[in-house]
Specification:
This protein is α+β, with helices and mostly antiparallel strands. Helices cover 47% and strands 15% of the residues. A hairpin with a 4-residue loop joins strand 3 and strand 4.
């Protein structure tokens, strides 16, 4: 069910965007518009503008903008339908009956079912980690990685017993129909018999939450040396791969306050820094960064420090991430830690103060790309220098500013 589009259009026209925003921000009139310090990032000079004529807001600092609904969604952290309710209540406009949208409603209901089953699974796995005899292997692993009890609870970590059907039986006992369990992604099917079995077995379980804090998927880390280090949830009605960022539900406010995000690759690369006080960090869930993930991140900050592993695979992943970040016009720097360490091991070994010192020295993205292109090449050979320039060119083309493009091109030629 959704509100009729005609009502949404009427509400947008009748809502005084200035009055609505003034409930949250102290605005001052400046010419035809109203100005204030932006509520979405730290600033001393007002760059947040509200136009009653155009019925939009825009911040020239963090580049957030949109209609009155966009503002309420951002400031209240609510969905679009909830924002409609809030705006209608503020101006005293009665809500109409929702209209039928069967496909949307069916998808939403299935997503709700998946999230409910995920919640039950998460709670059960937590119990297995906390108190079961078999869960000792996971408790020992977490102790070895210096992950505290408080952090375990914050991230809702758990342990999946090494059983083919223990979770399935638990979910059925909770009242979940078999067809719902099979669509949840929590079980898989044997090809020869078509019988289902628990997807996650004998693994440390890490829930993935959406930005609103709902469990939509899981990552399961091996504790016994299997070939697959991580097994991840498949796509479901609640989870589409490449549209979410791990940890954002916990770190979004700090990212907004600090004005930049640190982008890492894996679960522990976020969990350990978070435990030690680095709270403006998100992880790309161990996959190549996507445009949807960058668009999601850009709602909270326009600056990013990429801190992937320093090995060859990490460097290649960082370079791919840079292209996507630049395409969305985000200011990008790159942090490669000494000895190619990952954030998890570096912070545990040297401490968070030293990590932050390294982070403050992160390279502008173009210097990182140039250095990577020059590595293992002899610049006294024209052919190899030409190869290096060709490798850098895609990152120059991805920049929107003509002035910056020219400056970066000159840097590449002078290298």
């Amino acid at each position: 069910m959704r509100y009729p589009q005609t009502f949404i259009d009427d509400l947008r026209r009748q809502a005084d965007i200035v009055r609505v925003i003034q409930d949250y921000v102290q605005l001052k009139k400046k010419g035809a518009n109203w100005m204030a310090c932006c509520p979405f990032h730290k600033e001393k000079t007002p760059s947040f503008s509200v136009s009653p004529v155009k019925e939009i807001f825009y911040c020239f600092g963090c580049h957030k903008g949109g209609s009155v609904f966009n503002f309420v969604m951002e400031i209240e952290r609510v969905s679009f339908p909830e924002a409609i309710k809030i705006v209608a209540d503020k101006i005293g406009m009665p809500l109409p009956k929702m209209v039928d949208d069967s496909r949307f409603e069916a998808r939403r209901q299935e997503a709700d079912i998946v999230i409910q089953l995920n919640s039950w699974a998460m709670e059960w796995w937590q119990q297995q980690l906390d108190s079961s005899n078999e869960g000792r292997i996971a408790r020992d692993y977490l102790k070895q990685r210096e992950i505290s009890d408080e952090t375990q609870k914050t991230f809702r970590l758990g342990y999946a017993p090494d059983s083919w059907d223990a979770l399935s039986n638990y979910l059925r006992n909770k009242g979940a129909p078999q067809e719902h369990i099979e669509r949840s992604g929590l079980v898989a099917k044997k090809e020869d018999t078509n019988r289902s079995y628990d997807r996650f077995r004998g693994r440390l379980m890490v829930p993935v939450f959406d930005a609103q804090g709902r469990p939509i998927a899981f990552g399961g880390r091996t504790l016994r040396g299997e070939d697959a280090k991580y097994i991840n949830s498949p796509e479901t009605a609640a989870y589409v791969k490449g549209r979410n960022l791990f940890g954002l539900n916990l770190t979004r406010d700090e990212i907004r306050r600090q004005g930049f995000a640190i982008l890492v690759e894996g679960f522990l690369d976020l969990i350990v820094p978070y435990q030690f006080g680095v709270r403006n960090v998100v992880a790309s869930l161990g996959t190549a960064l996507t445009h949807d993930q960058v668009k999601l991140l850009s709602r909270f900050a326009r600056k990013v420090v990429v801190n992937y592993d320093g090995d060859r695979a990490g460097v290649q992943a960082a370079k791919k991430a840079i292209e996507i970040l630049l395409a969305e016009d985000l200011e990008t720097k790159v942090l490669v830690l000494p000895d190619n360490a990952d954030p998890d091991e570096y912070i545990r070994k040297f401490g968070v103060t030293e990590y932050q010192r390294q982070r403050a020295q992160a390279q502008p993205h173009i210097q990182f790309v140039i250095d990577s292109a020059l590595r293992d090449r002899n610049l006294h050979r024209p052919a190899e220098k030409a190869e290096a320039v060709e490798e850098v060119l895609p990152y120059i083309r991805a920049v929107n500013s003509r002035i910056q493009k020219r400056e970066y091109f000159d840097m590449a030629m002078d290298a």
